[in-house]
Design brief:
Aminopeptidase, 7-stranded mixed sheet, 9 strands, alpha+beta
Length: 188
């Protein structure tokens, strides 16, 4: 794909957080499909993601929680969410970008949107749980100022032996050179 064609396609990617019927199912399918193809996760991973989405919907506080969808011509190509863990602490959830659009800044854009929202809500910190087998995501979190706080022993999860990790970001720990700004090629 030429640079001009890539730029044009990126202009067509939109972010929204006004959840519509079917959105949660699409997020669940995206997670189940991609993680099965790329990491060999079994159906229990989909069950885990479904549980977290149900909890999000059941206890949703619109003033402190949000779920974004990145779409290209109506197709879901990414997502991220912020949920309330406590009055002062948020949790980052569901960050995923479809492989067909990776490398175009969508993950960075989604993360920036989520962090700006969490800061605006008055959270003093935000944490996330992930696995060590996702090094690109780990680099993205680190570049935004997250610090790895916990690394668990290898265990069986979702049909694979995995190492769970936790990262945390405190707003006062941001490096001065880190700017939470959005890339210009994605429109809101």
């Amino acid at each position: 794909m030429s640079l001009a064609a890539n730029h044009k396609e990126n202009l067509l990617i939109s972010l929204r957080y006004d959840l519509q019927p079917g959105d949660l199912g699409r997020i669940l399918q995206l997670h189940g499909t991609i993680y099965a193809q790329e990491y060999g996760f079994d159906y229990t991973f989909e069950g885990y993601v479904a549980q977290t989405l149900v909890h999000f919907c059941k206890y949703l506080d619109f003033s402190k929680e949000r779920l974004w969808l990145a779409e290209l011509e109506g197709k879901l190509v990414g997502c991220i969410g912020v949920i309330k863990a406590s009055e002062a602490r948020a949790q980052l959830r569901w960050l995923l970008v479809d492989p067909v659009v990776r490398g175009r800044g969508i993950g960075h854009r989604l993360l920036n949107e989520a962090l700006e929202f969490a800061k605006h809500c008055g959270y003093t910190s935000i944490f996330l749980k992930t696995i060590s087998e996702l090094p690109v995501a780990g680099k993205l979190y680190h570049s935004a100022g997250f610090v790895k706080t916990v690394e668990h022993h290898k265990q069986m999860l979702w049909g694979q032996e995995l190492i769970e990790e936790e990262y945390e970001l405190h707003w006062n720990s941001l490096h001065p050179s880190i700017e939470l700004t959005s890339p210009p090629f994605l429109k809101k």
